[in-house]
Each structure stands twice: as C-alpha cells, then as structure tokens.
Design brief:
137 residues; mainly alpha
C-alpha cells in the first residue's frame, strides 16, 4: 500500500479528515491556473525534508514538499503551501545553471529571486481563492 495521503508514513503523518492531500492539490491547481508562465512538474511528492526546508526541486526530476503540509492547515498555512508550490515552480522553470536559482543570500539567510518571485505572486487574492476552494466538500 502506498499511503500517499500520509506522505508514505501512515504512523507519523495521519490525515483523519482526508482533506490535506486535497489542500496540496487545490494549491497546485490555483498555482497552475494563475501562474501560466511557470512550468510545474506533473506531480509533487510529499516527504520529510530537513528543516527549515519546506520544498525542493531538482530540475528535470521533480519537486517535493515537506510532510508538514499533510497536517490540517490553517488558512495562513495553506497560503504558505501555495507560496512554496509557486517558489518551487520558479526553480523548476529556470534552467539548471541559471544564477537566479540561488535562494540563499550572501549572509546565509534564505532569499533571492525564487523567494522574491513567489512572494510577489502569492497575493492575498490567490490565498483567498485557495482557502475558498479547499473548503468546498
């Protein structure tokens, strides 16, 4: 059995409401429909990532997001999920050697083009669209 609804870990990550994978799918749908200049992978894997990482993209391979998104999400956390999906799509869209791929500032803190792009694209209106969509039964 795959246990995809719980990130492959049905003991450590449960989804009693059945809505968390729906949240991920809703965020991906909103992102794909509104960010038409970005390329999205066919599928986004969910796996345990080393904190503070919440997403990772390997060009030509795919994207994974952290298992934290399999938990029941608040509206603000769902917006963070949408931002993460858009951020990773920026990475996925850029060529592998593009200097804009870097998302660590010279001081060592997270930042740079993928963060700036995702932050400017994840508008309050998109977050509202996602939060309405994810609550539809």
């Amino acid at each position: 059995m795959d246990y995809g609804y719980a990130g492959g870990n049905p003991i450590g990550n449960d989804d009693p409401t059945g809505l968390t994978q729906q949240d991920i799918e809703a965020a991906l749908l909103i992102a794909e429909q509104t960010q038409t200049d970005l390329i999205f992978p066919n599928n986004i894997a969910v796996q345990a990532l080393v904190p503070p990482m919440v997403g990772i993209t390997l060009n030509g391979v795919g994207t994974a997001i952290d298992v934290r998104y399999l938990k029941k999400l608040t509206d603000a956390q769902a917006c963070e999920l949408l931002n993460t999906i858009i951020h990773e799509a920026v990475h996925y869209t850029l060529p592998a050697g593009d200097p804009r791929q870097k998302d660590v500032l010279p001081c060592g803190k997270p930042g740079g083009y993928p963060y700036d792009e995702a932050n400017s694209r994840t508008t309050p209106e998109l977050c509202q669209m996602l939060n309405v969509l994810r609550k539809i039964p």
